[in-house]
Structures are given as structure tokens and as C-alpha cells.
Amino acid sequence: MIEMQGVFKKYPNGVSAINGIDVKINPGEFVYVVGPSGAGKSTFIKMMYREEVPTSGTITINGVNIAKLKMSKVPIFRRNIGVVFQDFKLLPNLTVYENVAFALEVIEAQPKFIKKRVMEVLDLVGLKHKIKMFPSELSGGEQQRVSIARSIVNSPRVVIADEPTGNLDPETSWEIMKLFEEINARGTTVVMATHNKEIVNTLKHRVIAIEDGRIVRDEHRGEYGYEN
Ligand code: ADP
Ligand code: ADP
């Protein structure tokens, strides 16, 4: 469960990106976050994985108020959240296998378990045959598959994605969406900021629209609602 209460975020340069948000996201939900550029979508999402801290208000994730989380507890908290970015953010000097294994190696999981689990998630995203390749040797869609595998390798309860199809062609975007649908079908909460009108209007889920740092619309199986 993700809950925000009275959340405001003002950046050090004086920009008020989030101006009072109250929202609840239940376990297992799939939520699209939509809105114009500069509306505050990224800030909203970044606060959920504690990349940004709110200026005021509470953000409770799995029972913990992460607005008050000590720096030393942040890495432990992040293990329960998978994050997927528009630009993939893979480590260029590591292979596909190593990029995915990394998250398990830092928590010192058993080598046998790491191998089994990494192959399992790479199989899920359809990249078992490319484990020895480097990110630069893969297409954009394949790189995003690796980053999705990395996001779920720890079996997080929540996966957060910031414009995951923003750099991909339409066909590849649909393939990537299939993976998020599958991850969600297995019980993982998915929160996704997106500008992809066709996807939002076709694969129907809850839609939260943000404008000027406020929720202006929150609909069950909603529409994208913008021209683009
Ligand atoms: P969106 O994701 O909807 O495009 P953002 O959350 O990125 O919106 O941005 C919301 C507002 O906050 C914008 O005015 C943006 O310029 C500003 N902003 C975003 N990140 C920062 C930052 N690190 N420092 C200062 N201002 C920022
Ligand atoms: P897409 O059209 O899906 O974006 P690409 O045309 O970029 O795909 O790549 C097609 C195939 O070629 C992919 O399977 C990818 O792994 C492989 N490939 C792309 N770039 C390279 C590269 N620099 N070195 C080796 N293989 C590559």
C-alpha cells in the first residue's frame, strides 16, 4: 500500500512541483500517472522511491513513512521497490546477466540462488539467449527488457516506471507493456508515468492526472484525456 497525505514539494530553486497531494494506491493496482510536461509526474513518482523527499506531508509505503526515513535505511527500503526509467540506466560495462545479478549480489544472496533467479527473470523478459551481451549491443527494446528484469529480480511488491516507453517505437512499446501487464498479473503493484495515449486508452487501468502539482482526475479504468 502506498499512501500520500498532504504532500508538498518545493525544490531548492523555489519551484513548487507538488502542491498538496492525497492519494492511496492499493496492493496489486496498476496506475497510470498522466499530465502535461512539467505537471509534477516525475516528482510524484520520485518521492515514492525516495529519490526526492517531500517538503511536507507523509508518504507511507508498506507501513513506513519514507518522508522521515533515515539516510542509512534508504537502501533497505529501495530493495522492495523496482524502478524502470525511460533511458534504461543500465551499467554499460556489465553484461545483461551482470546488470540483473547486481541487485542480488549487493544483498549477498547465495550464488546458487542468484543464478537461478537471474535466469528466471531473463527468461520472463525473453532475453535468456543474450545474457553475455553488453547494453550497447542491444536494441532499445531489449535494453528496456533488461532493466525490467533488474527491477523485479528482488521480487519487489511495487514497480515504479517513469515513461518506460518514451524512447521506444510503438511496436516495441506494446511488447514492453505486455511485460508490465504480466508483472502486475502476478500481484505486483505498478505505478507508471506515461505520455502514451494509445496505451492508456487501450490497456485500461486507473488513471491519475496531475496538473500544476495537484491531482485533477483519478479514474478507475480511465482515459488518457489529453491530445498528447
Ligand atoms: P513532469 O514529470 O510532469 O514533466 P516534473 O516533476 O519533472 O514534471 O517537474 C515539475 C516541476 O518541477 C517543473 O516545473 C520542473 O521544472 C521542476 N523541477 C523538476 N525537477 C527539478 C529539480 N531537480 N530542481 C528544480 N526544479 C525541478
Ligand atoms: P530494434 O529494431 O528492435 O530496435 P535493432 O535494429 O537495434 O532492433 O537490433 C536488432 C538486433 O540486432 C537486436 O537483436 C540486437 O541485439 C542486435 N544488435 C543491435 N545493435 C547491435 C550491436 N551494436 N552489436 C550487436 N548486436 C546488435
From TrEMBL:
Q: Which residues form the ABC transporter domain?
A: 2-228
Per the annotation, which location comes first and is thus the protein's main one? Answer: membrane
Record's family?
Belongs to the ABC transporter superfamily.
Q: InterPro entries, per this entry? A: AAA+_ATPase (IPR003593), ABC_transporter-like_ATP-bd (IPR003439), ABC_transporter-like_CS (IPR017871), ABC_transpr_LolD-like (IPR015854), Cell_div_FtsE (IPR005286), P-loop_NTPase (IPR027417)
User: Could you tell me which species this protein originates from?
Assistant: Neobacillus thermocopriae
UniProt topology in membrane: Peripheral membrane protein
Q: Which GO terms describe its cellular component?
A: plasma membrane
Entry protein name: Cell division ATP-binding protein FtsE
The record's keywords, sorted A to Z, are: ATP-binding, Cell cycle, Cell division, Cell membrane, Membrane, Nucleotide-binding, Transport
Family annotation (CDD domains): ABC_FtsE (cd03292)
Gene that specifies this protein: ftsE
Summarize subunit and interaction data from the UniProt record for this chain.
Answer: Homodimer. Forms a membrane-associated complex with FtsX.
Subcellular compartments = Cell membrane
- Mention one GO molecular function: transmembrane transporter activity
Q: What does this protein do?
A: Part of the ABC transporter FtsEX involved in cellular division.
Question: Would I find Nucleotide-binding among this entry's keywords?
Answer: yes
Q: Which SUPFAM superfamilies match?
A: P-loop containing nucleoside triphosphate hydrolases
What does the record list as GO biological process? cell division
